[in-house]
């Protein structure tokens, strides 16, 4: 028979989340800490991780192409795309509803999501509101509003956000033959669990472009408006620097990603239907190497149709790639650029489950 104190202790222990238990063990048990930090444990963990079928988080949004910025939705849902192993054809992709969150105030249908360490940050298209979600715990919160941004549609936030204090007129310098624009850019950081407001940092050396940034190697990387610059913002010392880009020129359709802790850049080549995928090494200074040259499965009929390619995950010598444009699809690319498998159309072949069990398709999708 358990006493009341013993019952109380067991009840309290059962209510403590597993992650807090692990955190406590990390702090007080040196042998356990040394064990999970050892090379053998890490190697085995990576082996088991690779043996599991890959999955991707998707946030489907139905966007009106004629009114993308203004329309809102009263809910947002998070789904897991269930992918077969890379050696198999993608075929039909299954989906699993993780959870749906109602937001009566409305969330713009056009969103800019990104992720890091299990958290998903969602910047909205037409206001200053930024959301953070933990799909594992089904937590979804709105961050406090940051500083006013003169260009709402260029607001970006991934715990760091830049904004325009003013945005002047475009002028042409006849002496240099170059266009310029008078603008003042600010930058803020929000640290989860360390307060309820954004912290201003030093000003960026250049205005950031419309391409999304990426967080990896203890830093944020931004494409600058002035090509071909890449802006680095260190999370430790909170300073800016300009770092090398891949030696392949620049395109407004370039995109970046974090792949296994390495900075990845997908560059739209001069060819209308080809992308070059570059990876940076692990040294403090960025040195790039070309890993893939990808021919689009469905080249655009019209070269003016905007396409960009987003690296999603890498497994061995293969990389899952998402292409967004006139057609939006997923496919596996290889380092040898061998014959590619049939792609999956994200708009017409992937069905998402609603809480009531019904299915829907997304006309336009943002995923991370």
TrEMBL record:
InterPro entries: F-box-assoc_dom_typ3, F-box-assoc_interact_dom, SCF_F-box_component. Residues 116-291 form the F-box associated beta-propeller type domain. It holds the Pfam family FBA_3. PANTHER family: BNACNNG10540D PROTEIN, F-BOX PROTEIN CPR30-LIKE. This is F-box associated beta-propeller type 3 domain-containing protein. It comes from Setaria italica.
């Amino acid at each position: 028979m358990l006493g009341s104190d013993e019952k109380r202790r067991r009840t309290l222990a059962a209510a403590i989340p597993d992650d807090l238990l692990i955190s406590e063990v990390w702090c007080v048990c040196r042998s356990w800490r040394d064990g999970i930090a050892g090379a053998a444990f890490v190697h085995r963990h990576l082996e088991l991780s690779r043996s599991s079928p890959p999955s991707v988080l998707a946030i489907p949004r139905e966007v009106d192409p004629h009114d993308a910025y203004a329309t809102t939705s009263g809910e947002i849902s998070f789904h897991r795309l269930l992918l077969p192993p890379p050696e198999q054809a993608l075929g039909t992709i299954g989906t699993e509803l993780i959870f749906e969150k109602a937001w009566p105030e409305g969330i713009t249908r056009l969103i800019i999501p990104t992720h890091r360490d299990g958290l998903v940050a969602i910047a909205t298209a037409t206001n200053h509101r930024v959301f953070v979600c933990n799909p594992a715990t089904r937590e979804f919160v709105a961050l406090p509003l940051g500083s006013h941004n003169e260009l709402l549609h260029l607001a970006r936030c991934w715990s760091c956000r830049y904004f325009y204090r003013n945005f002047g007129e475009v002028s042409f310098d006849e002496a240099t033959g170059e266009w310029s624009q008078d603008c003042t850019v600010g930058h803020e950081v929000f640290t989860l669990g360390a307060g309820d407001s954004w912290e201003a940092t030093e000003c960026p050396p250049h205005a950031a472009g419309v391409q999304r940034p990426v967080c990896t190697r203890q830093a944020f990387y931004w494409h600058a408006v002035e090509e071909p610059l890449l802006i680095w913002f260190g999370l430790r010392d909170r300073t800016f620097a300009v770092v090398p880009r891949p030696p392949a020129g620049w395109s407004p359709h370039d995109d970046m990603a974090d792949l296994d802790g390495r900075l990845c850049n997908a560059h739209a080549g001069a060819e209308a239907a080809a992308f070059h995928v570059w990876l940076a090494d692990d040294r403090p200074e960025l040195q790039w190497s070309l890993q893939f040259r990808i021919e689009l499965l469905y080249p655009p009929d019209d070269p003016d149709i905007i396409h960009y390619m987003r690296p999603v995950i890498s497994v061995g010598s293969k990389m899952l790639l998402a292409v967004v444009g006139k057609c939006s699809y997923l496919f596996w690319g290889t380092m040898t650029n061998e014959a590619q498998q049939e792609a999956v159309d994200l708009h017409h072949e992937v069905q998402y489950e609603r809480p009531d069990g019904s299915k829907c398709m997304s006309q336009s999708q943002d995923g991370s």
